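Thread: EPZ complex, take 2
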Amino acid sequence: MSVLCIHGGTPLEGELMVQGAKNSVLPILAACLLAREPVTLYNCPKLTDVAAALDILEQLGCRTLREGHTVWVDPRLACATVVTEERMRAMRSSIIFLGPMLARMGEAHMTYPGGCELGPRPIDLHLKALRTLGCQVTEEGCAIHATGHPAGGEVHLALPSVGATENAMLCAVGAGGDTTITNAAREPEIVALQEFLNTLGAKVQGAGSSVISVEGGRRLGGGSFTVMGDRIVAATLLSAVAAAGGRVRLRGTDWRQVSTVLTVFHQAGCRVDSRRDSVALARDPHRPLRGVPTIRTAPYPGFPTDAQAPVMAALAAGQGRTLFVETMFDSRYRHVEQLQRMGADITTAGQVALVRGVPRLHGGRVEATDLRGGGALAVAALGAEGESTLAGLHHVDRGYEQLEQVLQGLGAKVHRVEALPEEAHCAQ
Ligand code: EPZ
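Output below.
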């Protein structure tokens, strides 16, 4: 078990290139099943979720290779139709392989996915979309059995689900006929998936809007692609500067993808600078953050649910109050109890959380409860008085590549201690 030891109170200074986006590379790796020739991916982040996805591709018969941030996938021998429970539980988004497996092999057997504990993570919209495309999908307990090559069709999503949109796109690309997906999710990662598929020879249009059209019957070749910057990691780092003070520029980030977060911190008293391929944020450590108008999470381009925890952690220290309304997941306030252990004054009731800014948080021994909750606790610790120990790094490492090194590069006093459970503490 390892922990992060964070000594709070040091303003962050510097500039860095944000890592490749976890939520973009995962569906792109699943899409490699549709390619008939090798694929090269650049700027592929080193994350445990990415390792899990590569593991699944290998189990399905692909060959994969990583050198630094470049990953090669050779899908030519892909033929297996089973993803074991162990691999399905390794991460929530493993369900994204269902659609491309049906498109490629016409058969898929797997179990319900695992992943971070954000409350019930249903997949009913995924299964309904694949049935609409002409596949037979049956559920037996927590097992899923799917057969049939997709024919194409009119898929309407009751909710603009990111994963269901991606699964429908990937299945539709391998369909015999054309497909239209309505009420599709509009996230930038969906646009990137469309760009990747079209690089391979697909004909997908409309991503970024609520209506996506996919031309069926096309055989995909291979190609190369660069993974976009991770907008949620960028939002987490912006939160860190807001919490600790200082001045940081993040390159490889399209400001439009973090505009809602930039607006919040501008309202809270930070200086922000938005450019096409970078964003910067500065806060005078002697000027406390102010409370801001209600933050209500929503599907893109609304305020991202994944940024809710890190932004809350930053606003926990400051003046004034901020109301959060989490509309996307039932239990996405698991980090609140940990923030309270650091002195935060936060009250939750269902979807609502009221944050009353306190002059300063204090360090403490805290544990990540999920991926973005872990990012939030690192943010809180960077602005807190004294030492903090952050455990539960298996959550953090799913989505933040070498977080301690990234923060060290910005001047933070943080290091990782690899130790046995009873020994995992920071040297005083
Ligand atoms: C993606 O998850 C992201 N994960 C999540 O990021 C992100 O929080 C979420 O989109 C929302 O933006 C990846 O891209 C790998 P959804 P996903 O389907 O696809 C309900 C992170 O921290 N729903 O858009 O699982 C669902 O319960 C992760 O990086 C159904 O009801 O999210 C939720 O309330 C956490 N039935 C809402 O839709 C379904 O079949 C949005 O979920 C599917 C979803």
